[in-house]
Please model this.
Amino acid sequence: MTKTLMADSGKIIADLADRISYLVDIKGGGDWANLDELLERVHRLKESVFDLSEAALFEELRLLEERISFLEDRTAEKLTPAEIVNIVRSPQRFTLGDILENVYDSYTELGGEGDCNVDPAVVVARAILNRRVKNRVYSHQVMVIGHEKGRGEEFRNGGCAKPWGNEKALRYMKVAEIEGIPIHFFIFTPGSYPIEDFPGAAQQIARNLYKMAGLRVPMVSFISEGGSGGAEAIGLADLRLMGSRGYYSVISPEGAAAIEGKIREGQKVPKELVDHCAAQLRMTAADNLRLGTVDRIVEEPPLGARREDYGFFRRLRYEMIRATDEVVLKTKSFRAFRAYALKSQGREGDPVPDEFDVLVGWELTDLEKDRLVELRSKKYRDMARRFLKEHQGGLSKGLGRARDIAARSYYELRYGLLRAHQRQVQKVIEEVSSEGSVFLRKVTEPVKAAYDFVFPKPKRPAKAVRTDGADTSIFVEEWETYVSPLANEDRTVSCPNAARRGCQDLWVPDLYGEFCGVCPTCGHHFPLEYHWYLENLFDKGSVREFNAHIAAGNPLGFEGFDKRLRRDVKKTGRRSSMITFDAKVQGIKLVVAMLYSDFRNGTVGSAEGEKFVRACDRARTTRRPLLAYIHTTGGIRIHEGTLGVIQMPKCTVAVREYIESGGLYIVVYDNNSYAGPVASFLGCSLYQFAIRSSRIGFAGPRVIRETTGEDVPPDYHSAKNALRRGHIQGIWDRKEFRKNLFNALVRMGGPHLYYK
Amino acid sequence: MDLNLNDLLRQYRSDPYEHYRVEAVHTGVVTFRVRDGDEVNGPSGRWMHRPGSLLYLLERERNVKKIYSPWSGIVADAALDLDGRFVEAGEFLMSIRHRLGKEEIIDRILTRVLHIFAAPQRARYFLVPELAAKIEKAPGESVRVRPGDEAIIMSLMKRDTLIHYEGLAGVIYKVYFQSGALVEQGAPLLGICPPEKLPYVQRVIQRVRTEWEE
Model:
């Protein structure tokens, strides 16, 4: 046997061993089809290469190859969702490093190396993509931002970005915006690293989402492993591609199984339950395309792309260029060119061409950038909308729409046209009268008088009480207070701080009646039901609910979930965990969105997301402040899969438009507020407050323990610590909620606030 | 030396247990959750945030309180005849036999060997900054105090009072309190060892470490 042949056989054997261990990875163990035994056979062959004759060696290799190919085909025939998750997690799967080397023509990593690199789990690079058109080569500049899972470095945390990693991503997004180059995102994360240290996991994701919602450059993302919040931090793109063997999910199948099966901490989650949940979550590429949460699938080899699948990298390169072209072309006003260029782009599944027919420049004009942001907003607002249940007749729907149009034109006229004009006139007068002296006033006074006559100042009840006076009671009228039904029990309870602060036992009717659920000794706030706030926080009779007809559903057909939904509807008499209403606080009109605990623990699904978006729009049309009062939120509703996750970008897009158009958005957290909502549309607020004794965070202590292996102090998520970390701006007592809210509206509002 | 180490160790060896009394924390109907001979655990976790084993329930005005064990050990002398009956606050319910560990024995012997400077009042205590810095730099056996030295700041009722050390001159061998923590009256603050006694103290520790079996 010649030496080179020997060397070759060594390589072939190593390759076979890799293929078998890949199959073991996919099947989640070696018991299937005796894979362990097969691997053993390959290892034996490796040791006895030199003892065998050439013919015997090649015969054995042929047999092994045949057997492995057969097993691969059989596995590929029917891949279960759980097996797809295993493919993604296999160490042989391609990572961002492979993409940077094989998809892009050249790249420079940004953000430092070694100790200077704030978080190696997030990799940022300036890259160049060359495109061949009619035998000439043109190059494009792009910013590549993504998660790096492996490359032999433990400290990457398997692609879990720490808060400062997401901050790095945001920093370079801004750089790309300054330079006007498109961004390519690559999502390879099982989830964000759950720590609250500044800048805070949830807060940073919220900031990223807020920025991305309005970023004025084309963005394309590719999802290989998309786990909830971690994925969203760099996922809000104009076009979202997904690997055909990737997964995109609200929670890991193991996490879902632990919740569904009520598995206690430290116990093993049964494999069958994990498989079941993986299937129920609808996390595969085909599912996500059907649900509309991704736009296109990039075909991988049947068992998923690995590090040496150069054919796949070629396709990915083509798809990334094509997707960026498409995003850019959609912003063009010249329709004929757009249609021609899009048509010449090829369709799904076509072989990858050697060159492109047309060159599309990726620089945008200001007008096109406006259109880009507009299109992005529309895209995310439309997501998941078709899975909503609306309990509304045709007539009331029509009436509602007519009312909306009427309201819009009224407020447009009142605050848009007239107010803008009025402000301008006022500004001129102010300037003139301050510049000018006594002489000029003689001239301006009659004009001002005439002006005041034409635009009389509206009478506002708010003005009369804007003294922060002592007469501001928390109750509208002291003698007819709403008392919680919790107060009807005749027993005592102990304050949780009794051992430390020496609080006396509290008689329930006292605690929930006179004390409003607050321990008089230490000030601990016991949870109160949401009705209490509806009755005590807002002016009597001012709460008017809207969009109550939008109902939470079971769009994925999650097994057993319909029954639980029906039970909650019956229990609460409402259709979703969000209540949106108009209300007044000491005469100031505002729009409120409220998540409450009684309905599926205040989790957010497509119904809640849509209601929030509509509340933002209503606040924007009517020019009123928006309050998000979060009685409790348990995060994103896992039973809606990615339809739940995309509520994060969807609501952020809507609330951003509201804030950018000048609205005042205030968030108040109470009881427990965790996960997705805090990491998106709540966390992006500039004014966030918490009620005393509430808990705020990204992931609960159990999740932190399970993912990081570290225990967190018992008060890790307390409002006090959230304030110390800069997450919230203040802690409010329940008894002073109304007063503080009013003060916040007045102080943070300023003269240009909508309600004025 | 006024202390016979051999006697002391023999004494601990013959009864290496500390007996803690568990008393009713307030009035109410008591329901036992342990029996004689049961092993119970004290609080655990890095912040002692996981409560120990459940000892008994105490119900007063339909408010059921769970009382957890503050020590680990074996339950003994449980007053099971009180089970399901109304008890007064402070009534003896059971005792917990806690087996002393090496460090606990050393601590106990040290309190008898060292000169203890106790807290004059229930208050928060801080070390004087110079002293704190010295101890941080060279913990253990090299920081000396003499009678009349400024040693400790007592913080009570928003007033900081400087406390001068009184007692034997010597080395600060042990600081018993955490800076800023609330200390009960009479609880030890500093353990002072006269320099000539130092070798003896070290021998004590050495002997307990090597001889004591847990």
In short: Helices of chain B lie at 5-14, 102-113, 129-137, 198-211. The first strand of chain B starts at residue 17 and ends at 23. Chain B is about 20% helix and 35% strand. The mean pLDDT of chain B is 88.
